[in-house]
Known about the structure:
Helices cover about 30% and strands about 10% of the residues. By secondary structure, the protein is an alpha+beta fold.
Amino acid sequence: xxxxxxxxxxxxxxxxxxxxxxxxxxxxxxxxxxxxxxxxxxxxxxxxxxxxxxxxxxxxxxxxxxxxxxxxxxxxxxxxxxxxxxxxxxxxxxxxxxxxxxxxxxxxxxxxxxxxxxxxxxxxxxxxxxxxxxxxxxxxxxxxxxxxxxxxxxxxxxxxxxxxxxxxx
Length: 169
Ligand SMILES: [Zn+2]
Ligand SMILES: [Zn+2]
């Protein structure tokens, strides 16, 4: 997917309410204002093996990643396109074997971090035409204790005490 629209819309700050987008010219009903590819995404565990990990197409007989055997693709094209991000998970999936069970949230965060790292300085990706990922606010101080505990559990397999040494280097 390419970024579309953009012409005739702008970002603005509304004091006390946060950020928004607004139009700067008239649009007709049904006209596309803005579309862009996702910055990062991940297939949920429950859909694994039923949908392609890259394009989310539902298909019988998806092909497995030959290494980890836990990512599934329509074809070699989808596998190749996902490899930039999957290669990092793939080595962990292989190392942890059947103990591999991070939540989708953790996998998504990893994919976001890798995507942010691989974007060249000052260069906006197709999904950052309006807003840079680094411009988003964390809101960590507003997180309740229950959410904090769930997050800590999610992250614990990756902390130095429990992760295999080679995954940390
Ligand atoms: Zn696919
Ligand atoms: Zn793999």
